[in-house]
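Appendix B, example 12.
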Amino acid sequence: MATVLSPYGLMPTRTVGSQRFPSAGTMFPVTVNVTAPIYWHSPVALVAGGVKALAASPTTTASADSPVGVLNWAYWEDANGVHWSQMLPALTITGGSPTAWKVQVCVNDDPKYVFRIQGQPSVVGPPVTRLGNGDVGKTAALVNWASGNAKTGLSGAYLAVPGVTATPALKIIRVLDLGDDYPDVLVQWNGGVHVYENGFMA
């Protein structure tokens, strides 16, 4: 039973309707230096031809925070050789030691992905009101979408308390651990949130 918050971001599990699951994703360049790490399973945006971290939890309003997907892994080259990592370190392009080039990230970018993410009680209490089947179909924003664990490389993103408004980032499709304080939850991008579906152009 999950009694503590230990987030891991948006972990791809399958696609809507249990269709094929192309886990490889798509390679995108990183053209602008990142001032903070981008962690494994963190949502990322595609702006000005390159991948960047989100500045806010996305919504159905098309913007520079409309996600193209979640980070799967990163690749770059520098004077020490070729590097593969679960996360993209900060200042890789111009502030790294040594400076890197050919910086790219693999992104799980299918807008129909179903993700596993950790949820939280809708009321901390006491008494505690836990997520349940009544929350299926509700929407929720992301919390700590840009944070992460430097040791594991995992994203610190988790699910905000769900509601019935139309604009937040995610839609709940199943609560996996009924009765847990911090259950694993299956979610998908809310309609119009993903950049492939909302027409945002940077």
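The longest strand covers residues 67-78. The helical segments are 195-198.
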